[in-house]
What we know:
78 residues, Translation Initiation Factor IF3, alpha+beta
Amino acid sequence: xxxxxxxxxxxxxxxxxxxxxxxxxxxxxxxxxxxxxxxxxxxxxxxxxxxxxxxxxxxxxxxxxxxxxxxxxxxxxx
Length: 78
C-alpha cells in the first residue's frame, strides 16, 4: 500500500479561468515553507496546463496528480 501524502494547504480553483488561477497558485506556493505541500484543485484544462508549466519552470515539485469527476488535483511540494 502507498504512503499517504501529507497536505499542508489546499487551494480550490474550480470554475476559475484566465490568468488569475496561475497568479493565485504562484502566490500560495510562495507562502509555503520549504518542504510543505499545497493541493491545487481545478476544473479547467487551460488552468491545469498553466499550473504544471509553473511547477516545471520553478523550484516546485508535483508529487501527485489526480483526475476525478471533471476535476484535476495536484499535490505540489516547495
